[in-house]
Design brief:
single chain, Rossmann fold, FAD/NAD(P)-binding domain, 2 domains, 7-stranded mixed sheet, 6-stranded parallel sheet, 16 helices, globular, binds flavin-adenine dinucleotide
Length: 454
């Protein structure tokens, strides 16, 4: 690193994929002048790669090896267990850094806005996923698995992840890094039927074909798709012409409809053209009332689900809404409530959508563009943001030294988790996993993580 006067101090907030790709792009762009603090509210890095990606999809998690190279770079400091809004404010960051890149993701979920949504047994896929992936904030989630039928509302890959976790055996899941508390509860699961439900038709489903196909290959569950619901109209076919994923999805769904059940212990059903209208129940959810839809062309293009007036009630004691993740506002940071993102232009944060630039403030990843795309999508997204940052005249902070940040955090009583701390925890988790034939056994509670490495 160069002498202090020539160094550009950047705070990247959030150590998920976008935070890592932004850090990497800053190192490449600034070279010896780079000095990046990667600030993460949890002790552990990697964001949704640790707490979102399904435990039975370990290969996807190997992307963290690249992130570890970034963590090992001497121009980068990892400050885990430090939260913007709790331990540091935006004004603090402005005092200590030339620029701030927000890469905080989309931590909450979209709601259905229908009666009964808050009955016990009804929850978001976001919470359930965080629970089975050992997210410290969700370890106490009540998941009443003494249910016969679970309904998963939404037709994207997260709905498929949730379905696989409910459908697989404890023996299968026991080979993964699923949370021990989740494995224990899933051992007592009485779920037999899992019904995935989409508002529109099979051609409009957001699944990726690889993930969809996996549902037909489950050792513990048969797959059921209704032939009559695959009868997509001309308009849908025209809309997906040239869309390889949607066309292949239809082929796979047709295969599923032809598949003969083998009498496996569990059953996965995929249903279409149903909008949830209400959840009914007493001390817990008992059923979901759906309105049946048909598809109609919209004047500006695209297809809308239009209610036919008919309804269908499905008995279910567990309901997961999986209709999208959503960003939340950060104190002092502009936020667009309608789209659930930080308003920005190529990553430059704007005061309001289409408004003036906020100097020195940038966004990358899901908080910049909304919750879509795969892990790799965040790379191009972060590179665009960093290109904007490097092209701008950055404000001059009053105290740009790393020591000043350390002193501030110490004064606030924060206990930063360093890259060395994480390396120790990582080694302990993987060693615990190795002796149990698993990729790792995750620690869950933040206090336990801090105590274990110190
Ligand atoms: C259930 C699920 C499964 C997925 N599976 C796959 C898959 O199999 N393959 C694939 O390619 N993609 C998958 N994705 C998508 C992928 O995870 C995302 O594209 C990616 O994680 C988004 O990156 P991000 O950095 O914007 O957000 P995140 O990964 O959410 O990272 C944001 C980070 O910011 C931290 N943070 C939040 N607020 C603060 C704060 N105030 N101060 C400090 N830190 C903060 C968070 O703790 C988190 O670590 C999946 C997503 C989900 C939800």
């Amino acid at each position: 690193m160069e002498s202090d006067a020539n160094v550009t101090r950047i705070a990247v907030i959030g150590a998920g994929p976008a935070g890592f790709y932004a850090t990497d792009a800053l190192l490449k762009g600034l070279g010896d002048r780079a000095s990046v603090d990667l600030i993460e509210r949890l002790p552990t890095p990697y964001g949704l790669v640790r707490f979102g990606v399904a435990p039975d999809h370990q290969k996807i998690k190997s992307v963290t090896r690249l992130y570890d190279r970034t963590l090992a770079d001497p121009r980068v400091r990892y400050l885990g267990n430090v939260e913007l809004g709790r331990d540091l404010s935006l004004d603090d960051l402005r005092r200590h850094y030339h620029a701030v890149v927000l890469a905080v993701g989309s931590p909450t979920d979209r709601r259905l806005g229908i009666p009964g949504e808050d009955l016990p047994g009804s929850m978001s896929a976001t919470e359930f996923v965080a629970w089975y992936n050992s997210h410290p904030d969700f370890q106490d989630l009540a998941v009443p698995l003494d249910a016969k039928t679970a309904v998963v509302i939404g037709v994207g890959n997260v709905a498929i992840d949730v379905t696989r976790v409910l459908a697989k055996t404890v023996a299968e899941l026991g080979e993964t890094d699923i949370a021990d508390h989740a494995l224990e509860r899933l051992r007592g699961s009485t779920v037999e039927d899992i019904v995935i439900v989409g508002r529109r038709g099979p051609a409009e489903a957001k699944f990726t074909t690889k993930e969809l196909r996996e549902l037909g290959e489950l050792a513990n569950a048969d797959i059921f798709v209704r032939e009559d619901e695959l009868d997509v109209g001309e308009a849908s076919l025209a809309a997906i012409a040239g869309d390889v994923n949607a066309t292949k999805n239809l082929e796979v769904l047709r295969d599923f409809a032809r598949q003969r059940p083998e009498g496996k212990p569990r059953r996965v059903h995929i249903r279409f053209l149903l909008s949830p209208l209400a959840l009914r129940g007493d001390e817990r959810v008992r059923s979901v009332v759906f309105g049946k839809n048909r598809l109609e062309g919209r004047p500006g293009g695209g297809l809308a689900a239009v209610a036919t007036g008919e309804t269908e009630e499905l008995n279910a004691e567990l309901v997961f809404r999986s209709v999208g993740y959503q960003g939340t506002p950060l104190a002092g940071v502009p936020f667009d409530e309608r789209s659930g993102v930080v308003p920005n232009d190529a990553g430059r944060v704007l005061e309001v959508r289409g408004g003036a630039q906020v100097p020195g403030l940038y966004a990358a990843g899901w908080i910049k563009r909304g919750p879509s795309g795969v892990i790799g999508t965040n790379k191009a997204c972060a590179m665009e943001t960093v290109a904007s940052l490097l092209a701008d005249d950055l404000p001059t902070p009053s105290e740009p030294s790393p020591e000043a940040v350390d002193a501030l955090l110490a004064a606030r009583g924060a206990r930063p988790f360093t890259a060395a701390d994480w390396a120790r925890l990582d080694a302990l988790e993987t060693a615990a996993g190795a002796s149990a034939g698993r990729p790792r056994v995750k620690l869950v509670a933040v206090d336990e993580m801090l105590a274990t490495v110190r």
